[in-house]
Structure formats: structure tokens, C-alpha cells
Amino acid sequence: MNVTKMRILLVFCVIICSSLVLSEHLESDQDILIPEDWTRVGRIAPTEKLELTFALRQQNVDQLEHLLLQVSDPESAQYGKHLTLEEVTALVRPSQLTQKVVHHWLQSHGVTDCQTILTQDFLQCTMSTQVAEALLPGIEFHRYVRDGISLVRSSSAYQVHEDVLQHLDFVGGVHRFPPKGQDLNEVLTKRRQSGAKFHLGNTPATLRSRYNLTAADVGSAQNNSQAVAQFLEQFYHPADLAEFMMLFGRGFQHLSKIDRVVGVQGAGKAGLEASLDVEYIMSTGANIPTWVFTNPGRHETQEPFLQWMLLLSNMTDIPWVHTISYGDDEDSLSSAYMMRINTEFMKAGVRGISILFASGDSGAGCRHLTKGENSFRPSFPASSPYVTTVGGTSFKNPFKVTYEVTDYISGGGFSNVFKMPDYQVGAVEGYLKSVSGLPPKTYFNTSGRAYPDIAALSDNYWVVTDRVPIPWVSGTSASTPVVGGILSLINDRRFLKGLPSLGFLNPRLYQLQGQGLFDVTDGCHLSCLDEQVQGQGFCAAPSWDPVTGWGTPNYPALLAALVLEK
After folding, report:
1. Does residue 178 contact residue 43 with C-beta atoms inside 8 Å?
2. How many whole angstroms separate alpha carbon 553 and alpha carbon 390?
């Protein structure tokens, strides 16, 4: 018998034979805080079926990060030499020991209905509530409801046997509640209450004029595509997209239909968020085939965002640019979960995929600590070092296509979990040293990953939803698909020249030091309403800043900077 098989048998024997070895917590030693907007309605019956996702510990994560930075750095000889999904799988797939230990652990509890993905680092298993609660001691599943959505979750921490613990990163479908999406109508109400000026509204024509896109700047490459992702009852309607393009897309060649829907579209009313995403990525990245990833959660224990991440690791051919308007407070998530999601972003980036996240609509955010003290509240995945995060701006003059200032809701700040990546150290330190009147250092982590990286207009958009044109739609949910569409156009030109996709943009973006972008230097975003900061977070400044990043796209200049290779 070889050594590996002997180790597997020994571990398996310990797991099923010994009840004296203490179990350990996998994610949290504290009971889980249930968001106030979710209401518990009852205990789950022992026979009711649940679906849980097991994130198996991967191999060579450090090597994956090294490769990602190499293929994303134009100064590297490996720049643009992206990996295939098969090559990523060979690199990070869990060890034979990890796979066998986890499978034996599940099977010893009677869990046999499991599906894996191509990279073999996730297992999705169906089991009864009774089996799940025996498998993960400490949990008790209850049903929770919010706005007509029903979920099954546990409010108590679970434990995993210490011999299995080293082979798992987390178990999905147990704790995390999906964040309440930004109510775009609430943003409109806040703007009106704050005395926001009347605005004629942003349309594709406005955006294309501001960012110097001509009627000729549309896609034509055969192998190009882009995507948006939608979660939890957010659906687009094809009729809305057709109506939007008829009203606002007459000045440029465009597509009026989605190329592919991955998932199941709901049958209810169209979501304002989903309509916004689809209409503006397709009118900025015009004439480029577009996919919609939609996951309403086909089971109450599913996590739609996690399901989208699994799809990226299970599809060999996927779009080159993905834009997502989704986020949660860093402090509401476990470090183990966020670290693993970061690895999933690295897996996508090393394949040449660009992933963009909205920076959020709460400025620097505010977390109320003990003893009346406050701190800023970063958002994840916006704070991930492995995605490109998009902030928001407004026109200085609401009646004219002119220069931009900070949109006060634009999310930005410094991570409390992830250290500042090397690619941005110079830019961020320059900001911290040159700007006077920074918030007190007790409010933010000066050594953390700083965001956003880039920005675009984020207020007063026209959107068609349920066949009705609606004005004043605002948020970084608007700016993110606009930047995504522009990057798709740049990919298009790269493909026509025989160049690879942009992939993970940040190392190149920070090397450009603002080249190809309109610098935004005016305005601040909101934060804690207290005596020390009085509702003000960070302020824009020349070069990079934690409100608008490097600024907004000047398409011809950015195209020139990103199509040329060393």
C-alpha cells in the first residue's frame, strides 16, 4: 500500500472512529448576526432537502497569484500568455488526499448526491436537514423571508472535525445572507432631498459624447463578448432592451438582443438594476455579443453570487469582460470566505478575463463601533485586490456635457482585510502624503487595498424597464457597465490586431498613471455623520484618489495606451 492511501485510511479512521477529538470552527467562533431586514419564520423539517456547497482547499494558490501578475504586467515576458481552464485546473485542483478525505467524510454521513465542477475544487451536495445538522454540529436551519424571497440559513456557528478542517475553506449555503441590493429609487429620493439639481439625464448619446466614442466605435471582432451578472429576482426583459435601443441607440450600430442567457430568467416584473446593466453595457460596448448570467437561487440554501463564481470555473468559453453590481460589508463576511473568493477571481484573471465590480453607493461607509466610536466601512468584492473596481462621477454642469466631479455616493476607501497590492503602492502613498485634511487615521486602514481603480458617470441615467422609460436612475451600478463596455471595445481592437484580451487590468492601469483617463479632482464622498468627520469621507485629488480612482475613460487615448504592447 502506498503512503498516500495509508494517510487517507488513517485520517478516515480517525474521523469516523474517534469522538474524543475536538471539532473546530471553520469560519467563525461567534453566532451569526442575522440582518435586520430578514425575518425568521420557522425551523426546517428534518426531512427537508438542502443543497450545500463545499469549497475544497486548493493547491498552489501562491503560484497562481504569481502567474496572474506575470500575465497581467506588460513589463513581463509572460504578459498576455493566459492559461486555459484545463491549465488552471491542473494548477489549483485539490490534492488527492483532500478530495478523498472530504468525500469519505461526506459518505460516512450518508451524503452521496454530490456534483463537482471542472476544477474539482467545489462540491455541491444535496442532503436532508437532519443529515446536514449532523454533518456540521452546532447549526440549526431556519427559514427566513424578506420582500417575498425565502432562504434557509443557520444563525449559529458550525464545527468541522479537525482532520477535515485542513481540507476545506468554507461551506456555502449555511450562513451568508445576500445583501439587500441598492434600491435605485431610494438613491433618486436621497438626491432630491439633498437638493440635487435638475438634470436632463444621461443616455448612450451623452456617454458616448463625454468619453469620445464615435459612431464608428462599435464591435466587429468575431471572438469578442461581454457579460453582466444578476442575482436574486433581478431579471431583464428582451422587450425593454429592444425599446431602449429604439429610443436611444439610433446613432450607432448595435445589437438589440442578448446573445446568451446562462441560468433561468424569472417571469415577474423586470428589475431596474438588471435593465440598467444590460442596456448600458450594450450601448457602450455596442455591437458586441452580450451574455446575461442570472441566478435567482433555485434552492433556498443556494448563494446566487457563489453559484456565479462556480460557473466561471465550469465553463471553458465565457465572455472576456464581466461587470457586477454586487457587494457586502467586509466585516459581515469571514476572512476564509473572502480569501477563497479572491482565489476564484485570480483563476478568472489568469485566463484573460476582466472582472469589474461597482464600488458601492455609500461613500466611505460607516461602521458604528463600541463606546460611540465610528470607522469607515469597506465593501467586498470592491476591496478585492484581484478585480477592477468602478466608482462614480457627476457632471459639474447638469445641463452640459462638460467635466466631471465626484458623485458623493461613490464607494471607496481602504480594506481592513487585504493588504495594499504592490501595483498600487506608489499611487496610494502619493495620495496619502499629498492630500491635506484626510480623515483621522482611526477611521481607515492606511495599509489596506485601496479602491476604486477607475470611474464613470453614475447619476441621472435613463432606463427602460417594463416598457417604460424612467429617468434619474443612479449609482455605481450605472458606471460599472459603462466602463465594462469601453473595455470590451478595446478588447475588440486588440483581437483585430491579433493581441490577447486585456485580462486583469489593474497592473497595467496603475502603470499608465492616469494616461488615457480624465482626472477627476473636485468633490468628496459621504461617510459617518458624526462630530469628527461630519459626513465627509475622502476627497478627489490630482492623480489617483479613493473616490474616483484614476478618473474616467477618454476612449481614444485609453485605446491607444492599451492596444500598444511592449
Report:
1. no
2. 11
Distance between CA atoms of residues 484 and 479, nearest Å: 9
**Are 393 and 548 contacting, i.e. CB atoms less than 8 angstroms apart?**
yes
**For residue 29, how far is the Cα from the chain centroid?**
26
Cα 459 to chain center, whole Å?
Answer: 20
- DSSP for 17-77 reads H-SSSPEEESS-SSPPPPPTT-EEEEEPPTT-EEEEEEEEPPS-HHHHHHHHHHHT-TTST
Higher-scoring residue by pLDDT: 470, 184: 470
Q: Which of 243, 273, 300, 519 is catalytic?
A: 273
* 539 grid coordinates: 476627497
pTM: 0.90
Residues in CB range of 544: below 8 A, 6 or more apart = 424, 427, 428, 430, 431, 510, 514, 550
Task: Give the list of residues 6+ apart from residue 1 with CB closer than 8 angstroms, or none.
Answer: none
* pLDDT recorded at residue 41: 79
Give the mean pLDDT of 455-471: 94
The phi and psi torsions of 109 (rounded to 5 degrees) equal -105, 10
Per-residue model confidence as pLDDT tens digits over 535-553: 999 999 999 999 999 999 9
Fold for 184-189+198-563, please state it. Answer: Rossmann fold (3.40.50)
Query: CA 253, 489, 182, 150: dihedral to nearest 10 degrees?
Result: 90
**Cell 465590480 found at:** 357
Instruction: Concatenate the DSSP letters of all residues of 173-220 into one string.
Output: TSSPPPPPPP-HHHHHHHHHHTTPPP---B-HHHHHHHTT--TT----
What the block records as the C-alpha cell of 306 is: 457563489
Catalytic residue among 27, 163, 277, 344: 277
Q: Residue ranges of the domains in the chain?
A: 25-58+93-172, 184-189+198-563
Q: Is there a contact between 346 and 418 (Cβ–Cβ < 8 Å)? A: no
| Cβ atoms < 10 Å from Cβ of 190 | 16
- Decide: 377 and 470 in contact? Cβ < 8 Å: no
**C-alpha cell read off for 439:** 480623515
Among the listed residues 325, 477, 479, 488, the single catalytic one is 477
277 is catalytic: yes
Residue 527 is a catalytic residue: no
Burial of 333 (0-12, 13-18, 19+ CB in 10 A): buried
